[in-house]
Write a structure and sequence with these properties.
Strand 1 and strand 2 form a beta hairpin. Helix 11 runs antiparallel to helix 12 and helix 13 runs antiparallel to helix 14. By secondary structure, the protein is mainly alpha-helical. The protein has 14 helices and two strands, in the order H-E-E-H-H-H-H-H-H-H-H-H-H-H-H-H. It is globular and about 65 Å long. Strands 1-2 form a two-stranded antiparallel ribbon. The protein has a domain of about 160 residues: Tetratricopeptide repeat domain (Serine Threonine Protein Phosphatase 5, Tetratricopeptide repeat).
Length: about 270
């Protein structure tokens, strides 16, 4: 969920939302097996409220103007350009599924690997925000459709494979996603996406000591990954390693000026 995504994900809203809306899957048992248990979302509707925020009149006017022009454009390149511009407007407004829809239109028009990747990543961004079960399934399928097109031409794109894996984790066959992530780490033990996602899934299933191991590896090889640094602190906290948690959260404070992250860190420090 490295962006492209996860996207420049908002910590306490998007990542935590995805984390607790996933099925509770034990990903790192001692015996190497995995157990699937029931879980339930604990996040409420905050991500959907952001997504459903109303558009300003100026934004609506710009979108209507571009949409009208799109409807009468026959040139493929111009059509793709207009669709991409519409996608950008929707994305800036927090309408990620609408942005993905227009990038899909552009991709279907010009059919290039770059356009498929943009559409697939846009659908993945929308997927990370979705809370409705049917919408999650729909956006996950769209993500796989377009990112798999890219993988067919470039099988070495493990960053895209990692995103596809995460869409399976929220499906009726979560072990397919876990297996894909394990394959990524077997091929590249330092892979940023693989380590991050396995750490997130370990947290989600309550395996905080396992999560610590994953995030320690992640920040060892990718110290600039602020999400990993933050989640390492959370994992220390949840596994009762309070001294390490305090030190880790203080380190995060020195790494970012993002007020949402700092507020989350402060809330944990107050509990230590």
């Amino acid at each position: 969920m490295k962006k492209s995504q996860i996207i420049a994900v908002i910590f306490g809203i998007v990542c935590i939302g995805v984390l607790f809306s996933l099925p509770r899957v034990v990903v790192d048992n001692e015996d190497g097996n995995s157990v699937i248990t029931e879980g339930e979302s604990t996040t409420g509707n905050v991500t959907e409220e952001i997504h459903d925020a109303p558009l300003a009149q100026e934004e609506r006017d710009n979108i209507n103007l571009l949409a009208n022009e799109l409807g009468i454009t026959e040139n493929k390149e111009k059509y793709a350009s207009l669709a991409t511009e519409l996608a950008s407007l929707y994305s800036n407004a927090g309408k990620f599924d609408s942005a993905a829809y227009f990038l899909e239109m552009a991709a279907d028009k010009i059919e290039t690997a770059e356009s498929w990747e943009k559409a697939g990543i846009a659908y993945y961004d929308a997927y990370t925000f979705a809370m409705n079960e049917e919408k999650v399934a729909y956006l996950a399928e769209k993500t796989r459709t377009y990112l798999n097109k890219v993988l067919e031409e470039d099988p070495k794109r493990v960053d895209l494979k990692s995103k596809i894996a995460m869409t399976y984790v929220s499906s009726s066959n979560p072990m397919q996603g876990i297996t894909m992530l394990r394959e990524i780490l077997e091929e590249d033990p330092t892979n940023e996406d693989g380590l991050f996602n396995m750490g997130v899934l370990s947290m989600q299933s309550g395996q905080y000591k396992r999560a610590v191991e994953r995030f320690e590896e992640l920040v060892r090889y990718h110290p600039e990954n602020i999400q990993g640094q933050f989640y390492l602190g959370v994992s220390y906290f949840e596994s009762k390693q309070n001294n390490k948690a305090k030190k880790q959260f203080q380190q995060v404070q020195n790494m970012t000026t993002d007020q949402m992250v700092l507020a989350s860190v402060e809330s944990y420090l107050e509990r230590l």
